[in-house]
Amino acid sequence: MSLSPSQQAALGPLFNPQSIAVVGASSNPAKIGGLPVEYLLNQRYPGAIYPVNPKQERIQGLQAYPTLRDIGAPIDMAICAVPASGVMSAVEDAAAAGVRSIVMFSSGFAETGADGVRAQNDLRAFVKESAIRLLGPNCLGFVNNHQGVYATFTPALKIAAPLRGNIGLISQSGAFGIFALMLAQRRGLGISHFVSTGNEADIELADALAWQALDPATSVILCYLEGARDGEKLCAALELARAQRKPVVMCKVGRTAQGAAAAASHTASLAGCDKIYDAVLRQYGVYRAQDIHELFDIGYACSVAPLPVSDALGIVSISGGAGVLMVDEAERVGLSVPLLAEAGQQAILKRVPFASAVNPVDITGQILNEPALLADAVDTMLEHGQYGAMVSFQAVTGISPQHRPLVTELWARVRAAHPPLTIAVVSLFDEQNRKFLEQHRCLTFEEPAAAVRAIAALHAFSRHFARQPVPVALPEPVAIDRARFDEADALRLLADAGIPVVSSRVARSADEAAGEAAALGFPVVLKVLSADIAHKSDVGGVALRLADSQAVRAAFVRITESAARAVPNAHIEGVLVAPMIQDGVECILGVTRDPVFGPVVMFGLGGILVEVLKDVTFRQAPFDVAEAHRMIREIRAWPVLGGVRGQAPVDVDTLAETLATLSRFAAANAGSIESIDINPFIARPKGQASCAVDALVVSRTSRALTDED
Amino acid sequence: MSLSPSQQAALGPLFNPQSIAVVGASSNPAKIGGLPVEYLLNQRYPGAIYPVNPKQERIQGLQAYPTLRDIGAPIDMAICAVPASGVMSAVEDAAAAGVRSIVMFSSGFAETGADGVRAQNDLRAFVKESAIRLLGPNCLGFVNNHQGVYATFTPALKIAAPLRGNIGLISQSGAFGIFALMLAQRRGLGISHFVSTGNEADIELADALAWQALDPATSVILCYLEGARDGEKLCAALELARAQRKPVVMCKVGRTAQGAAAAASHTASLAGCDKIYDAVLRQYGVYRAQDIHELFDIGYACSVAPLPVSDALGIVSISGGAGVLMVDEAERVGLSVPLLAEAGQQAILKRVPFASAVNPVDITGQILNEPALLADAVDTMLEHGQYGAMVSFQAVTGISPQHRPLVTELWARVRAAHPPLTIAVVSLFDEQNRKFLEQHRCLTFEEPAAAVRAIAALHAFSRHFARQPVPVALPEPVAIDRARFDEADALRLLADAGIPVVSSRVARSADEAAGEAAALGFPVVLKVLSADIAHKSDVGGVALRLADSQAVRAAFVRITESAARAVPNAHIEGVLVAPMIQDGVECILGVTRDPVFGPVVMFGLGGILVEVLKDVTFRQAPFDVAEAHRMIREIRAWPVLGGVRGQAPVDVDTLAETLATLSRFAAANAGSIESIDINPFIARPKGQASCAVDALVVSRTSRALTDED
């Protein structure tokens, strides 16, 4: 599950081409085949440009060629700007000419229905065989902004050219991508590399992401995603970005049922389950932005500032109100706002007797009379406090000529003294002040809460990058020697995998059951055992709280007869006898197969929380114990495991180890196991045995099952 | 609880003065006393301006006066720009001169500690007695932007003057308020009236809100609130705004524990409980903005567009991706995106065979070749669908000269044909296109999700304004004839108030208990009855599931003896015998007193949901049954009441009536009752009796109580 350097290198001729041909080139820059030529000329693209058009000798001042083969020179990348009907002959020409990559604007493929899907499959097969990398079809192309490669036909870039910078932008939607590109320009954000992936016949968003992860000009990657075809490739690309310490911010649409339906109808791609995307993106340290403003807020922050080395936020404000707004937001997003040390507080109160000095430090309107107070407060905070980040609310000082030193001198000095500190200044800014601060790697925001959110996002990246990815060693796959599992089989399978399970026994007669019960200790539970009965409770196949041998014998007869009556053809092997566990916290541990991401582990508490509040969390398998701990703490009902109403906290370490073990088992047996449902897993305090009490395992070959409900 | 017109009229001389004096006026426009004079002159304020300064004859070209009394003409409003030490003599001068209102910039009052509080109290007492309305002290003043009244000393307005418009802005924080005012200017938002309320010795945010509610130039009111001293006045002002159909958007800080602490230290005001603020603001139809951008996004929408008449949203997009993003957001914020009627879908597919035609309507990149497609799609949607609002994602057409008709002609025509339709166009815009659309009452947004959120907010206002406020008639207060209530008293009190309670009996002997149990029907529960025992379970004072007379007799002895042993001095009156109810859904109904808003009713489900997830909701008492229904549906666990796992839904009507009855009882007895805790209230399906099973009532005079836990 990794993208090899050679795979990435293969995209070099596409995204950083030394020569570009334009098939369907036009002399008219308003046309789809004219625009890229004009853009390349205007951008002074330094490589060779070869217009291809059999009807013209010169195009926009350049020599034109009838075919790609006629060029007679290496062609790294060909832009294909011909109608769908002309695509196959263009691609054949490209293969014959040794073209290494194609950007295909042409529409009329998978987005148009069954015929288009067939045409696209043919196209894909052809380029694979010819070792040509293909972007598109039905895409708006890409921009390599530092190399002057405008391989796009959108006319929008004539209105305003994207600024140069270190932000990579990748969109599965063309119109949306160009809109975002233009919005970035308006916001003053500099772009290194923009890609619209269109129908993704060959190159997917994940490929572009991996390329940007290794692109020295890109330091943060923003994505617009509707759905990934290849979850493994996406995860590998995200891991590559993590290894390069490049934050990834993603706007993934299809969050809701109606949204997912609309996305599916739009892209005809396998939408997958949004909750799983959400979990996997979290697992891989991606910041999931809820809208485009957030995408850019966080992307901007990553592009400018160093990542905070701790979650401690120092807040200074010349308005008490803004200080409150920021500490509210800090608490909400999980940053700490530690009290300033007493000596620091005293130092501030000495200067401004009516200040709030605890952090947030509010130096009040007194700043208007004595501007130096701000710098003194900041110095005092940095002397007496340890912060990963500082945020300073400075009202309108950023557009006030008389307060310019509060923006420039102050923060340039702080930056010089504290290179790793994340600094955000909140104010209105004129362009000059804004640029000054950003050149000093200080963030500028107009919105106090947005500044705090961005700092929290930076800190999350910082934590994620600090994690050493522990290679998770998978066990040998087990031989799934049967199509159907009864409950005893299922529990044995899990026990063999290292999951703690309840010590149950199989009994084939009433006497055997009574004997096993006595050996286990009363009270016990009896469950009818049959691979043919899916829902034991529904057929009267379960007896709870059996207190003595007599009760066990009677129950054996009752539940086997009842089950046999209800499912006459069932092969009833006997019953499972198990101790009746009545304490502990009921959890649900599950494994399902996601069409995009493969085996996925679910965790939640039993009862109403899962059913009504959907208070569950997911992870792609496999994962390590540390990830399992994070997973457990994600559910809203987490405090229940920590002990409420005087209950002792459960043994979270065992729970986390169990989840990690389950994830390794699921990953190792992804080929043979469809799903696992451990419900309940009883989590108990340390020193008492936590265990799976009931389990349902479904193999991929058959849906034979055993369960209890 | 209403603000009389005369109370409001009393603020006319302040906020819309015919004459203004400036006490402490200066010839130097950089000074606190010079700035207002310069502003008034520059703004060509049409009324009289009287600089007051004993040391100068003329100030900034105007005749100056030694004192206010020397002016010899009516003075509607005096700006007080002198240090705290000079305030009292200035105010005495104002009273003598018949000044009707004062704006006091001077700091050095309650914000500086105990001495300052005393000085401010003296100031308040003096102006009350002199019938002078006072804004401040320690405030940045106000701006009446249509009358040219810049009664402020902030130098920021020299950098950029607020645009004129219909948005009122009120801030308890001066620096924050000016920042917001300047930010509004940057966003192109027009302001009618800006107020900074400072220390609120007399005029509170609620007074300014009420004035703007009646101000014809203001049509939407944005507030920054840290805390209200007078909850009743705030609610009355909000009700006044509702009656005038003026949306109120509020940024209330102190959401979190640390934020509330910071707010309290900042304003020294009683912070109150943020959860209660949240509930009351919702109850009064206020949109609570989480940050300043949201404050302005929603405020902007209210200032431009008509409110949607239904929750049905039509989405048209030239990018499928943006369509998905918008439908995601619509579902999240509770707007419906109804399928387009089949005939409409067919009409669209006839034009664009590969469009998504269901709603969102995605007319695809085909728009680039055939711009008229957008207008056709919009016309088709409006012909075949019924929408309260339409949102159109148009990528970069708003800055594209060739696509200007898609912005202007199209929407001008739609507006003319559909005057009440809420329209939002999402694109990048040049100034001309933006203004054109806004003049046609169409919203412009750069962010698709923000547009949908704004439409949802407008729809919430629309629903709120459509509600006929039902006057809630309060019952007569009950005579609280005792300081302490035992459980039997508490249940009787609630039963008399009209709350359904369990049919319990008091028994003073084991035989009596057995007799009552037989009369009620087994199984029963016994609870020791004593006004001296707060927590019956803790002292072994409760026996559950008693199945026969023998068990009841034994339990009587056991629990009374156990309680007597545990609380030797307790007067034990006997026991309460009640049927053991084992079905239904356990709810918690409570009443507490909020320091700001008075009696408040709480609702939630019993068990872990309240304890761990804090899944409860509040309302200020009293409220009607419709409000109670909204309240019940607000908790996350609401589906439990609707019936899960095959359970019948509970009788929500009875639950809502009970909450409304409880709220009336709480309001009528606010003077005598401190708190009520009905835990549990068992909600059962229609036809079965829902009832309070246990109750705790605490009077205000004493904290005698009875409960069960």
Automatic annotation (TrEMBL), chains A, B:
Swiss-Prot/TrEMBL keywords: ATP-binding, Ligase, Nucleotide-binding
E.C. designation(s): 6.2.1.34
Protein origin, superkingdom: Bacteria
Residue ranges of domain ATP-grasp in the record: 491-527
Gene3D superfamilies attached to this UniProt entry: ATP-grasp fold, A domain (3.30.1490.20), ATP-grasp fold, B domain (3.30.470.20), NAD(P)-binding Rossmann-like Domain (3.40.50.720), Succinyl-CoA synthetase domains (3.40.50.261)
GO MF: ATP binding; metal ion binding; trans-feruloyl-CoA synthase activity
Enzyme class: ligase
Transmembrane annotation, as ranges: none
The family this protein is said to belong to: In the N-terminal section; belongs to the acetate CoA ligase alpha subunit family.
PANTHER family in the record: BLL6376 PROTEIN, COA BINDING DOMAIN CONTAINING PROTEIN
Designated name of the protein: Trans-feruloyl-CoA synthase FCS1
